[in-house]
Amino acid sequence: MLVGGICLVVFGFSLTTPRDFLSVIAPETNWILSPLYFVGTNFLHLSWGHLLVNLVLWALLASRYEMKEGSLKLLGLIGLASIIGGFAEWVFNDLQFSGLSISIFALVAVYVFDWLSEHPYFFGQSRFFTCAAAALLIFLMIGIEAVIAYSGGYKTAVAAHVGGAMAGLFSKLGMGSRGPGNGFPFRAMRPDDVGPVLDIIFEFDEDDGEEAEESFERSLDHKFVVEIDGRIAGMTGFTIDDHGSDIAWLSWTYVHNDFKRKGIAFEMMQAIRDKLERAGIRKVFIATSDYICEDTGKDIYKPARSFYENKLNATREIVVKDYYGKGESKYVYSLPVRDHSGAPVQQGQGIYPLFIELLEADESEGGYVIGWDETERALDQTAALLKLIEQGRQKNAHAIFVTMPSGLSANGATSLTAAGFKQVGRITDYYAFGVDDTYWAYYLAGDENAA
């Protein structure tokens, strides 16, 4: 807003007076103060059209960069782009250039670099390779801009734009993609990171390691690492849920033992929030447990639960007793990514659950879930549920769970209750704003169903 306001004020004084003022500190007359000249040219514009186009692009690009990196980094990028781009234009052309486009191309280069970094299979094999690929795309954009301008009889500051873009790439090459606080280098996971990442996960939890290994073989999309002194210090990421493109689950989030208590976990969570927002996620969920290590007798996820509750202020949505196995409950936390808007979704009118099959619960030993379909007929499903419970008993199940949208849950509650199921909680606004994911449980090993 400050930069845009200065541009408007300067334009109101016309080009003559400000340019006459800047000529006093031009490199031709004063080398020491020449950087101020190049920064000052950002605020000079040739016409209302020139000014408005630049202000719109500036508002779109600079506001997002400033929210992520802060005002000081934005000002630093303006200065770096102005000096490099200004000197380049002076050397290859003249000093008669003006406009915010030098700084705008620096921001464009930053966003192109970030986009390429998030697609490691194509461009992100190394930071230098990503930088080179970004440079080629930026040069292509500047070339197209120059062809359009010159064919229409207009002049464009090609060297200044190239210099500004190079400044943006230089800022990424020098700093990497960093978190908003202490500045730990935060980047997309690459194929060569998989081995070190799995080593960290396996050291902490073998089951998580096996599941992560299978997942990484399928895709590294939305997976990120913190790299310090050439070593993987931590990893995190997210997986978009099959039930909706606007909700996601936090994936394996660990910090190497050598780098603990340095604030890396918190920094990763701050950085991943920006990635979630870019992906259009409205709410992210975190699943963990109270697993007790057989060798040490320790609740190994207790520090993680404390971190989510006390450091991130995450909401504990639900605790499902014995979900992963006898004595190991499922904990689900949530963090809003963006505020919801509009009225809550009304769901469940005229639609009823039809319980059809018994399936093994994900990552559970002895836990099962009941699969269901939808029907427009209000049927008594008690007999079907009792049959599925008997199947679970024959499979030595210790518990059977049913999860479904809150509207369907309400319509099927009579049958579920008659079969002995108890509602044990819900994950709010899961399927949509106002549509929760409701959990029911039936425990076969004891009298929990009568509790």
Low-confidence stretches: 120-125, 175-182
Number of helices: 14
> Can you identify the CATH class of the largest domain?
Mainly Alpha
Q: How many domains comprise the coordinates? A: 3
Judging by the overall fold, what is the CATH architecture of the largest domain?
Answer: Up-down Bundle
Q: How helical, in percent, are the residues?
A: 40-55%
Mean of residue pLDDT?
Answer: 85
Shape: elongated
CATH superfamily of the largest domain: Rhomboid-like
Strand content: 15-25%
**Largest sheet geometry:** 8 strands, mixed
Terminal Cα separation, in Å?
Answer: 60 Å
Structural class: alpha+beta
Strand tally, please? Answer: 13
Please write out the topology:
Blueprint: H1 2-12, H2 16-23, H3 34-40, H4 48-69, H5 71-92, H6 101-117, H7 127-151, H8 158-175, E1 186-188, H9 194-204, H10 206-218, E2 223-228, E3 231-240, E4 247-250, E5 254-255, H11 264-278, E6 283-289, H12 302-311, E7 315-325, E8 328-336, E9 352-360, E10 367-375, H13 382-394, E11 399-405, H14 406-418, E12 422-432, E13 435-443
Parallel strand pairs: 4-6, 10-11
Antiparallel strand pairs: 1-2, 2-3, 3-4, 3-5, 6-8, 7-8, 9-10, 11-13, 12-13
Helix pairs in contact: 1-4, 3-5, 4-5, 4-6, 5-6, 5-8, 6-7, 6-8, 7-8, 9-10
Keywords:
5-stranded mixed β-sheet, Aminopeptidase, alpha+beta, 45% helix, 451 residues, Rhomboid-like fold, 8-stranded mixed β-sheet
